[in-house]
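Me: Here is a favour to ask of a fellow structure person. Could you put it straight underneath, so I can go through it closely?

Assistant:
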Amino acid sequence: MLSEDYQVSVVKLAEKIGVASRNIENNIKKLKKYGIIIRLGSQKNSYWEIVDKALQE
């Protein structure tokens, strides 16, 4: 979903997937820890970038 909408919020991801936003936050934390995604931009106008290109396909 991040590759389709790089500015999607945690709340919107949770709604689309059907899980609690806390679960999304934990998974995003893991993805950042493993260097798979990074958050770019200012705090108000930021977006996700998928660093691991194999996951974009």
